[in-house]
Amino acid sequence: MNKKNLSERDICTKFITPAVEKSGWNKLTQLLEEVSFTDGKIHVRGKLTARGNKKRADYILYYKPNISVAIIEAKDNKHSVRAGIQQALDYAKILDIPCVFSSNGDGFLFHDRTATDGNIETEIDIDNFPTPEELWEKYKKYKGITTPAAEKIASQDYFFDGTNRKPRYYQQIAINRTVEAIANGQNRIILVMATGTGKTYTAFQIIHRLWKSGAKKRILFLADRNALINQTRRGDFKHFKDKMTVVKQRQIDKSYEIYLALYQGLSGSDEDANVYKQFSRDFFDLIVIDECHRGSAKENSSWREILTYFEKATHIGLTATPKESNEASNSEYFGEPVYTYSLKQGIDDGFLAPYRVVRIALNVDAEGWRPHQGKTDKEGIEIEDRIYNRKDFDKSLVIEERTDIVAKKLTEFLKGYDRFAKTIVFCVDIDHAERMRTALAKHNPDLVADNYKYIMQITGDNDEGKRELDNFINPEEKYPVIATTSELMTTGVDAQTCKVIVLDANINSMTKFKQIIGRGTRINEEYGKLFFTILDFRNATDLFADPQFDGDPIRVKPVTETTDLGDIISEEEQSENPIIDLETGEEIEMIIPKIRYPEEETNATGVHEPRRKVYVNGIDVSVLISREMYFDQHGKPITTSLKDHTKEIIKGNFVSLNDFLNTWNATDRKEAIITQLQEQGVMVEALYEAVDKQVDLFDLICHIAYDQPPLTRLERANNVKKRNYFTKYGEQAKNVLEALLDKYADEGIANIESFEVLRVNPFDKFGSPLEIINQFGSKANYLKAVKELEIELYKTA
Predict the structure, then answer these.
(1) Which residues of 43-64 are buried (b: 16+ CB within 10 A; e: fewer)?
(2) What are the two backbone dihedrals, phi and then psi, of residue 318, each rounded to the nearest 5 degrees?
(3) Beta bridge partners of 125
(4) Stretch among 68-77, 533-542, 714-723 having the lowest mean pLDDT
(5) Mean of the pLDDT values across residues 298-316?
(6) Closest Cα to residue 696, out of 653, 631, 751, 738?
(7) How far apart are the first and last CA of the chain?
(8) Inter-axis angle of helices 731-747 and 713-722, to 10 degrees?
(9) Distance CA 91, CA 71 (A)
(10) SS (H, E, C) 467-492
(11) What is the band of 563 on the pLDDT scale with cuts at 50, 70, 90?
(12) SS3 626
């Protein structure tokens, strides 16, 4: 047997797998081959979507299920034993794996990430692959596990529910790092995971492993909303069965082991309401704080009172948006995150939905509005003469026409996209959400007549709307379709099929912005939810360009000083830490203070009159510009023109026109070049729209990067036909090539390179794919003919 003639898969089957098994690795439980650990980034092309390539490891070795200790990258025997090591190291860093191997079937190159003595890479004979116990010792060293007690906790089994469900790679890392940190004595831990990445499932596995190992016997899961508690109880935590209870109506039963509670249900404004004190200070071994950015970050919060009381317990904070400000700091309390999985990583891996952003600028927002002399509001009171801007609209001054045009533009978008796409409209306050519901009903009378629940106001004060929240987030329920809200749906709402988010509120807080964007990031392929669209009427998406967006939290709270702010709370803090009903856990939304005119500051008794909003109409409101924002491969907005951005990427790959032409003509599958450029941030579909001609990518690149005049696909196809190129082929083969040429003119180069094209009209009239290929004598001859056709298509002279 000549190894050089074997494929990579043959090398794996005949040499690598037997060598690993020989060292004691169980093929069924410890050895996984061809492991795809991402889903592949979703690329949006108009209304169509396509998955990018998944990241795939040739082998991952597990000491126990979900505790991965080694990775092997295989190559065929034409490569050296070292050829796969760099790719393996990339994957090992992503997967948090200490032992890295490369092999070509002759032996192994072992890269030991725990080595400190200079022997970081060594070659190993094919018959001497390390045993599970040897690599487990490496893993323990890598993780700092030094005692038998810590090892017992770190090696505790995961919970399996009898299905095929298992943690995604980042959940596995988060679970293992947290359990290992606790095993090593760390008592304050924070996990930062983007909305939609499964924080609750991650928390369940952490709790279950610590509970089963005996490391933590009584656990408290704290949240600040009933929706979060109920979602947790009915979801993954249901496996705790009769060992779990939910604290309700301030009734304490100490016979359980797992407790779910609202912090408002444990504490209150007077001492009698602080029922958490019925527990002894050492009752709980572990406290998990969900959405910890909302309250526990503040030193004087009710959360902190509870956490301070149970200070001997281990505290784990969960959040998508760690809070770091002058007044509050998650990192000061919990320390640096043991693991962070960002929105960008989730989108790149294909676990979270990418987004399109359409910004609509209104004239009154961009230019401001000043009332003419004597202009009165709807009550006939003269309006104060000043320039009103975006910050005023719907908060202190309401322009009815502005609300109407937002509703109109949203309706226009949905009519061109999908009128039954679940949509959340974020408004300034309850009054604004109420008016927006009315305006949308006016522009959608047909669907509202069919079912009045087509549009619902879902706010903290509206019982009918709140009752529909579960239906809105349930993928199986058609109604409601559009929800108008202000604060209630910014967090804790698992809207799997939300396809449109409308921003008509002023958002100055990065934490709140990330939470709102998170309402759209979940994927539900069964219901066709693979991306979402943001319609921005307030320039809130400027925050995408902020360095804080999706980056590490910036620590701005001084840790060496204390700031006594008394009862002062900023508007931003108020919006992030809303007032909660102590009994129900429901959010109470604030009524916006009304404007007080100078002459009305006091009434006859000397008491201040309540301020009021000003409502005006008869104002000319129009759309100045509507445009789609584009983002680069790092998720940041493109500030240069789309053409200049694309030109820069192309010239980074192909310095000159000749360089590009040589690569294009030498590449067997042109689709590979398309994919490569898309992965580097070239928005092909957007460029097609910008050029507005039926050109293919070849002409698009030549035109944008090298200033060549573009030819349409039809022009290129006709040029080939004029050359009588097909005369050298038989009649049937000639018909096939002419049909391929027509297909190219209609759809582009990628489709004619696939054998699948031979199964569709008009090729199915020529026979089966095999019969068509036989007209050319062989598969190789058919591929050669297609290649020659492409050369004819792209002749530049």
Answers:
(1) bbeeeeeeebeebebbbbbbbb
(2) -120, 130
(3) 107
(4) 714-723
(5) 81
(6) 751
(7) 50
(8) 160
(9) 8
(10) HCHHHHHCCCCCCCCEEEECCCCCCC
(11) very low
(12) strand
Classified as helix, coil or strand, 333 is helix
For 761-776, what is each residue's pLDDT tens digit? 888 888 888 888 888 8
Fill in the amino acid letter for 746: D
pLDDT in tens, 332-383: 788 899 999 988 899 889 999 988 888 899 999 988 999 999 999 999 999 9
277 vs 271: CA distance, rounded Å: 9
For residue 499, the Cα-to-chain-centroid distance in whole angstroms is 13
| Nearest-angstrom CA–CA distance, 174 and 341 | 9
DSSP 3-state assignment of 1?
coil
| pLDDT score at 262 | 86
Backbone torsion region of residue 724, taken as left when φ is above 0, otherwise alpha when ψ lies between -120 and 50, otherwise beta: left
Which DSSP letter does residue 24 get? T
CB 490 within 8 A of CB 426: yes
b/e map 120-157, b = 16+ CB within 10 Å: eeeebebeebbebeebbebbbbbbebeeeebbebbbbe
Q: Which helix (H) or strand (E) holds 666?
A: helix 657-666
What is the bridge-based pairing of β-strands 67-74 and 56-64? antiparallel
Structure tokens at 784: 């050669």
Q: Following CA atoms 551, 556, 560, 564 in sequence, which dihedral angle do they give, to the nearest 10 degrees? A: -140
| Residue found by looking up tokens 């009524």 in the block | 591
* Distance in angstroms (rounded) separating the CA atoms of residues 691 and 408: 29
Share of the chain above pLDDT 70, in %: 83
Mean pLDDT to the nearest integer, 156-183: 94
Do 590 and 573 contact (CB within 8 A), yes or no? no
**Residue range 416-434: average pLDDT?**
94
Closest CA to 42 of 56, 58, 53, 31: 53
Alpha carbon distance 719, 714 (integer Å): 9
C-alpha dihedral, 78 to 82 to 86 to 88, nearest 10°: 90
789 within 8 A of 721, measured Cβ to Cβ: no
pLDDT of residue 103: 96
Q: pLDDT band for position 144 (50/70/90)?
A: very high
Q: Are 400 and 621 in contact (CB under 8 A)?
A: no
The b-or-e profile of 189-215 (16+ CB within 10 A means b, else e) is bbbbbbbbbbbbbbbbbbbbbbbebeb
- Provide the strand spans (E) within 37-187: 42-45, 48-51, 56-64, 67-74, 99-103, 107-112, 121-125
